[in-house]
Design a protein that fits this description.
Belongs to the 'GDSL' lipolytic enzyme family. By secondary structure, the chain is of the alpha/beta class. It has one domain (2-15, 36-345): SGNH hydrolase (Rossmann fold, 3-Layer(aba) Sandwich). It has 11 helices and 8 strands. The strands form 2 sheets. A 6-stranded parallel β-sheet has the order 2-3-1-4-5-6, with helices on both faces. It has a two-stranded antiparallel ribbon with strand order 7-8.
Length: 351
């Protein structure tokens, strides 16, 4: 169990409506709909509370320090990517799937978050639902018909986030580096399968983030005292992103007038890192590669306590001054800045 907790803290990256009336569907096709609900699939960059408390540091202090001022299952001091995308759409952040029984029906109308921190496209070391399983949950909710109807889906947005846990698992299993390109092709091919499935279920707008610059995560820059990115890791992220662009271009060509959009995390992160001046909405971080929360025994262990309950981690004076919260996850202020950079590119989601 301790290994499981450590792994999560390190690597957290149909036919049911065929009877619908054709005239109503035709009306939907001819009408531009701004997304008014959000369905989320992915890992710790978008999980807002699905992961179990017993295995995740995200339910321990100091996580949630900024928002909601207590741990909430988010892998940050506050809000994460899901929250900022929902805010851009003008809706409330969707309820986590595991909380659905405790939420009122009105709250569920904003969508549902199926993401689990530590998971991937395929099976990772962590025994939690991967993306295929998350889409299974989504399909079951749709089939039940007591929360969402087929008519809700064309005005919805799916957010499919993969932050690198499949590749972290590859490294943890000590697989030969020469096998990595083939794995990346498999991962991107499966992402394509997954988003096609979501599209077939009825969601016509799907946003897919590119991989962030993996070599700039504090887990990769710690050996340089958080001063320099690892260009080999960044090259791997670029390779993944090139494959993803090709897959999305193919999807858009084949499924017109649907919209598949890549959220360019790679360049958005770098834009924030390099910001030296007053770019609107983007904070200037003094050392953007240095995390706010680090463990005393190991950089990775933000939230550790000793047998007496004494803190075995340190926190920076002002989390709002740090881009990264821990060695793999942005702070709330980091995510705010990323989405400020992305804002002008998100307008296509509103058409």
């Amino acid at each position: 169990m301790e290994f499981l907790k450590l792994f999560i803290s390190i690597f957290s990256f149909s036919s049911f409506f065929l009877g619908a009336k054709s005239d109503h569907l035709q009306h939907i096709k001819t009408k531009s709909l701004r997304p008014n609900r959000l369905f989320v699939f992915g890992d710790s960059y978008v999980d807002t509370g699905n992961i179990r408390k017993s295995i995740s540091d995200s339910w321990k202090l100091p996580y949630g320090l900024t928002f909601p001022e207590k741990p909430s299952g988010r892998f940050s001091d506050g809000r994460v990517a899901t929250d900022f995308l929902a805010r851009y759409l003008g809706i409330k952040s969707p309820i986590p799937y595991t909380w659905r029984e405790y939420a009122g029906k009105e709250r569920l109308l904003y969508g549902m978050n199926y993401a689990y921190g530590g998971t991937g496209v395929f099976k990772t070391i962590i025994p939690l639902p991967n993306m295929t399983s998350q889409i299974d949950y989504f399909q079951r909710i749709l089939a039940a018909g007591n929360i969402y109807s087929p008519f809700d889906l064309p005005s919805s947005l799916a957010f499919v986030s993969v932050a690198g846990n499949d590749y972290a698992t590859f490294v943890a299993m000590k697989r030969p580096l020469a096998e990595l390109p083939a794995l990346m092709k498999l991962v991107v091919d499966q992402i394509e399968v997954n988003v096609r499935r979501i599209h077939k279920l009825g969601v016509k707008k799907i946003a897919i983030p590119s991989l962030q610059p993996l070599g700039c995560l504090p887990g990769s820059t710690a050996f340089t005292s958080f001063q320099r990115c690892n260009e080999l890791d960044n090259a791997a992220a670029k390779f993944h992103n090139n494959l993803l662009r090709q897959a999305v271009a193919k999807l858009n060509k084949e499924t017109k007038p649907s919209t598949f959009v890549i959220l360019d995390y790679y360049n958005a992160f770098l834009t924030v890192f390099k910001n030296k001046g007053p770019e609107p909405g983007v904070k200037r971080f003094e050392n953007p590669l240095k995390p706010c929360c680090v463990g005393v025994r190991s950089n990775y262990n933000c939230s550790d306590v000793d047998e007496k309950g004494e803190k075995m981690y340190t926190i920076c004076k002002d989390p709002k001054a740090a881009f990264f919260w821990d060695v793999f996850h942005p702070s709330e202020e980091g995510w705010r800045s990323v989405y400020s950079v992305l804002r002008k590119h998100l307008q296509v989601l509103l058409i």
